[in-house]
Amino acid sequence: MRGSLQAYKRVSVxxxxxxxxxxxVISMLMAGAIERLIQGKAAMExxxxxxxxxxxxxxxxxxxxxxTCLSMEDGGDIAANLDALYDFMIHQIYKANRENTTxxxxxxxxxxxxxxxxxxxIPAEFHNMTQLG
Length: 133
Description:
This protein is about 80% helix and about 0% strand. With about 130 residues, the chain is mostly helical.
């Protein structure tokens, strides 16, 4: 039963991605990173090493993807600042995983929430102007 539910969840996400604006895709990536890092933190606190590594790894992959989506040519200072923040987050995620400590994950989750909150405030008329890659 659980496998069937997961399959439907994947179909739902896939269909959302297919019809999503570039702005929405970035918002979904940020939400996914936050969710995976929270799950990784919970697994760390429970001593579940396998799940910790898998979830933190997925969160890290998403943050790296967010960083690679930045348009440094068009984004100016904002893109440069986000690039530096994502670089910091990547190092914090590595640190949390290596040292098995939750504080760096809390920092990253908090930063991602703030960035996502600001991102989600962008008016709808600008959503299709977002550049990916």
